[in-house]
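Could you join me in thinking about how sequence relates to backbone shape in a protein? We need material for that, and I hope you will provide a protein of your own picking. Once you have written the record down, we can walk along the chain together:

…
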Amino acid sequence: MYRINLNKYKIFVGLFGLLIIPNLAFPSDPIFIQDAEGNPIPHALVKIGTEQVLTVGNDGSFELPDNLQQDQLIEIIAMGYDTRIFQARELRQVNKFNLKEKIGQMGEVVVAATRTDRSVEDLPMPVTIITRKKIAETGGMRLSEILREQTGLQVVGDHGTGLQMQGLSSDYILILLDGEPLIGRTAGTFDLDRIAVSNIERIEVLRGPSSAIYGSETMAGAINIITKKSKERFAASLESRYRSFNTLDLSGDIGMNQNDWNIYAYFNRFSTDGFDITPEVPGKTQSPYEASTAQFKIGKKTKKWDFKLYSRFYNENSENSMPVAGEGNPRLADL
């Protein structure tokens, strides 16, 4: 008869399990790379050591290999953001982390040329970016006053304040707001005085035909106006500007950015008494008018889709007079 000491076997199996379990490969959960606003960073690089580089998905996610040592250093690199270094054990304890935007001059990004974010250096056509700083330096209150200062653009008065580019009239220049065409032309001219500048982040001036993207309306070029959006969890501001001819510009906005929701509301009221450079002629050269603008934007970004809703309102009241002939005697007619 043979006797088996089960206690020894129990001890042996227990020690064997302690040695094997830490080395077992368990599937790791995806880890998401985001910016300060919670948006994914799909162009980041995940560098392990000196040779291995992991790919990052369009949603900013990647997965760590199962055979990494716990103290393995992992470097996260993304253009425009500060580099971060983690140990493998640190990344296994989180499902997402943020990269801080690098302070410094970044290459300008354009939307109008290809309807996608592209660097100016990568575009096959001439593009001019009018930044928020340049807009403030002009002192303008309406879009026409900003574009009037730009080389190669001519602001003309034809059924409103229109624009000429490369010798072509307003009929061949497309005006876009956040990448979407604006409507409301009169005789082919979109009145640039309708657009307030206090909530404009930048203006993209695209010269040359882009009919493949926007149609035949862009034989001369396109003007894309990018408005502000919320960058803080909650922010609000008021702005007032006054100049000659009793011209007053009042603006206010409020925004929220949290839980992947971005909400922004804006209101502007502009009024002027106009001016007259020919007092001997009835009526004023620039008509007195009042204009009100309201804009509302809401967006929700998830891992799979990006929802955006825009709404914009504009109303204008203008008064002027001109001489008309009637039964031999000229008289004034209100407009």
About this structure: Residues 149 and 272 are 21 Å apart (CA to CA). The longest helix spans residues 6-20. Residues 8-13, 15-27 have pLDDT under 50 and may be disordered.
